[in-house]
TrEMBL record:
GO terms for biological process: L-tryptophan catabolic process to acetyl-CoA; L-tryptophan catabolic process to kynurenine. Its EC number is 1.13.11.11. Keywords: Dioxygenase, Heme, Iron, Metal-binding, Oxidoreductase, Tryptophan catabolism. Heme-dependent dioxygenase that catalyzes the oxidative cleavage of the L-tryptophan (L-Trp) pyrrole ring and converts L-tryptophan to N-formyl-L-kynurenine. Catalyzes the oxidative cleavage of the indole moiety. This is Tryptophan 2,3-dioxygenase. PANTHER family: TRYPTOPHAN 2,3-DIOXYGENASE.
Length: 272
């Protein structure tokens, strides 16, 4: 979280390991059970968290670029996010080499810890506009994380900024959409749908918004594929056991697959 600091005291004799903080990075795989496969489990999670860090960095940059009408840099940043999403989806293939009996041998040592508590994952979902009431209470114990997430929860998401771009291009977008309470989940809107439909029907005129829309669809599509692979990998490894985080497990993970982040961008496809 404290990565805002810029280091200026470069050393002449700086090494590869110094630069990458390899000492701390490579001494952070602490297997509680000592089980062989717990190494795989830890590394997969740490790699996913590192990629999530970069996703957040790029989404924040893309939001800023869009606010400044710098569309080309925003497209490059969003395209990078999609490439990372592809990477973390592939990581499920590695985790799926672990069998149910191998996992069950060290599952108890995880206690009540769960991916449920990944605050970087929440930051990503908030930026995609997926905000569920009561989610913040999971983070009550850690005031610093809680404050950071609360701020993100009340902020505009990527889609809110994209809709502002529609308004700036001259489309009639109601005030109740532009000035909505951003902590509420986004509700689909007829005027927004009409605007995006026009963008798709006349893509030559609205080429920039058209590209933006497709980048957003990429992000949502990949995110849902990540959720699906997570759900299926969990079913493959623990079946329908309850989750360590207290949820019903696979059925909970299936239920989140029903949500849409950018609903109009999907709805319009039926009518084009
Ligand atoms: C053996 C591997 C895994 C199993 C059995 C598993 C199981 C589960 C279960 C059952 C849940 C629901 C919450 C709960 O009750 O615990 C969950 C949530 C979650 N897991 Fe995993 N998981 C695995 C691997 C991973 C990996 C590699 C990641 C990558 C970071 C991950 C990230 C998450 C996230 C972000 C959630 C919250 C999802 C949401 O609330 O929509 N999980 N996991
Ligand atoms: N929820 C998992 C446990 C689990 O997967 C996990 C435990 C600690 C840290 C990260 C985890 N990953 C994803 O939920 C389970 O019920 O087996």
């Amino acid at each position: 979280m404290s990565d805002q600091k810029v280091y200026t005291d470069f050393k002449d004799d700086m090494t590869y390991a110094d630069y990458l903080s390899l000492d701390s990075l490579l001494s952070s795989q602490n297997r509680l059970s000592g089980h062989h496969d717990e190494m795989l489990f830890i590394v997969i999670h740490q790699v996913s968290e590192l990629w999530m860090k970069l996703i957040i960095h790029e989404i924040q940059a893309a939001c800023q670029s869009l606010k400044e009408n710098q569309f080309e840099p925003a497209f490059k940043q969003l395209a990078r996010v999609s490439k990372i999403q592809e990477q973390i989806i592939k990581a499920w293939d590695v985790l799926a080499t672990m069998t149910p009996s191998e996992y069950i041998e060290f599952r108890d040592s995880l206690g009540k810890a769960s991916g449920f508590q990944s605050y970087q994952y929440r930051l990503i979902e908030f930026s995609l506009g997926y905000k569920i009431p009561h989610i913040l209470k999971i983070y009550k114990q850690d005031q610093e994380v809680f404050n950071m997430l609360e701020k993100a929860y009340h902020s505009k998401g990527l889609y809110d900024i994209a809709i502002e771009k529609l308004a700036e291009a001259g489309f009639e977008i109601p005030d109740e959409v532009l000035n909505r309470d951003f902590s509420n989940p986004y509700q689909k809107n007829t005027e927004v749908k009409a605007a995006w439909s026009e963008v798709y029907k006349d893509s030559q005129t609205y080429w920039t918004l058209y590209q933006l829309a497709e980048k957003l669809v990429d992000l949502e599509d990949w995110h849902q594929q990540w959720r699906f692979r997570h759900m299926k990998t969990v079913e493959r490894i623990i079946g329908f056991k309850k989750g360590t985080g207290g949820s019903s497990g696979v059925n909970y993970l299936k239920s989140v697959l029903d949500s849409y982040f950018f609903p109009e961008l999907w709805d319009l496809r039926t009518e084009l």
